[in-house]
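Action item from last week, closing it out:
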Amino acid sequence: MTTATDVRPPVRQDPAERRRALYHLASPVSVLTTGPEDRMHGTTASTVTLVSREPLLLGVVLRAGSSFARLAAAEGRFAVNVLGAEQADVARRFADSARPDGTAAFAGLAWTADRYAHAPLIAGALAHYVCRFHSAHPAGDGELLLGHVVRATADDALPLLSYAGGLYAGSLRPAKEAVAS
């Protein structure tokens, strides 16, 4: 197999400038959860994307060696909770590596256990995707977790977005259409 790196010499660029440019990829913020209750775990992810429509697969990028990917593989199931605009505190809670383990991490948070995945579905989330573990793949300095969506629900609300290293909530407005001349 030939790849672009086999054919072209590497591009030289200041790593800080490249990292700054990457912060300009806006993405919805999600909390991934797995269960059952005696083995609950959650983690914040800002890179969740549709990979395939048939079968319906979501991809999630996690850091290499992620404990969440290991737990999701062991359980065979997990949930993706796409956070709403008012849930920045939830995103920060599950991004904090000092958070408590297990059910203690969910203390004071409204949630219900999904009947298939046994994973927490966080109340107020913009959307829930219940997934069967498909596969996990090393990808550079990260790990790509793929989930086969078995059930999805959504509410009409505004999303919580990750952009330029921060969390953003606000109204969305359609882009203006170009006027034909």
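Closing note: The first helix runs from residue 4 to 7.
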